[in-house]
Design brief:
The chain is extended and about 80 Å long. A 4-stranded antiparallel β-sheet has the order 2-1-3-4, covered by helices on one side. The protein is of the alpha+beta class. Helix content is about 15%, strand content about 15%. A hairpin with a 2-residue loop joins strand 1 and strand 2.
């Protein structure tokens, strides 16, 4: 039986192929980059909606939704009145910069720890 190794290069006349044993191949190791979380500003609110996490600078008088959208955070929202619940977020940090829950939030979310971004108004830095 023929024990010769064939490759595409060896089938082309005039081409020679060099064989390197698999244990001698230099395979680059893949090391995923570690994504460092950006430092939270002294007056910012960090929110999470599904797999999206955003850090939103505090803008007193603005809703959390408006500030997040102005900051480039691509959140889900719909009615902006507190009835649909699409803008519900988890507040990871900076809850002290948000107003107390209003009736729309209490009615829609009940005892959940989530907040409606369209109803949460940012207050002065404390």
């Amino acid at each position: 039986m023929n024990k010769k190794k064939w490759s595409v290069g060896s089938l082309i006349p005039g081409q020679e192929t060099m064989f390197i044993p698999e244990n001698k191949l230099a395979v680059p190791s893949f090391k995923p980059e570690k994504k460092e979380e950006p430092a939270l500003a002294a007056s910012a609110v960090r929110i999470q909606q599904g797999g999206l996490t955003c850090s939103v600078p505090v803008k007193p008088g603005s809703t959390l939704l408006d500030a997040a959208l102005a900051n480039g955070c691509d959140m889900k929202y719909k009615c902006r009145k507190g009835t649909c619940g699409q803008c519900a977020v988890d507040v990871v940090a900076g809850a002290e910069f948000l107003s107390a829950r209003n009736t729309a939030e209490q009615k829609k979310l009940g005892s959940s720890a989530k907040r409606l971004a369209c109803q949460s108004v940012m207050s002065q830095v404390k």
